[in-house]
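Hi F.,

I've been meaning to write this up properly since the lab meeting, where we talked about keeping a consistent format for the predictions we share between groups. The idea is simple: the sequence comes first, exactly as it goes in, then the structure tokens exactly as they come out, then a line or two of notes. No screenshots and no reformatting. I'm using this chain as the first example so we have something concrete to point to.
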Amino acid sequence: MRLGLITALGAFLLDQLSKWYISKQVLHDVSSINIFPFFNVTEAWNTGVSFSMFNNGGLMGTFLLSAFALLVVFFLLSWLKNEQNKLIQVSLGFIIGGALGNVLDRVRFGAVYDFLDFYYQSWHWPVFNLADSFICIGAFLIIAHSLLSRKQSLKEAVK
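Output, unedited:
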């Protein structure tokens, strides 16, 4: 459990520090900076969930999304408490830390601060932040581990 909690704390702190740094030091007087031909640092406030789905929920939406995220965090913490696999502990930590980073933004600002803007020509991926990245990486690792473990179990069963 300790490894997952340390990972969650690290993900949370990196997310919050990156949001502070980008908003106060990088974009303090502009809304967007082009870094590469496929990447901008762009200020965006997301009142919805991932990719701005369920946007415009107002104060009630902020409360409901935060409450749901905290319920998920409590579920993941109970999973983490009993998890022996170190990769799953780290994965759960990524998800927990990312979720808490976005919840803190919702509570403080009523929206989540996003700034990573990847694009190709005129097509832009929805702007996101490190918390979103940690959540996706953690979920991907859990799914990959599950699929690979299942494949290994099937190989052993066939022997």
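Notes:
The beta strands are 32-36, 39-46, 112-120, 123-124.
The mean pLDDT is 91.

If this format works for you, I'll send the rest the same way.

G.
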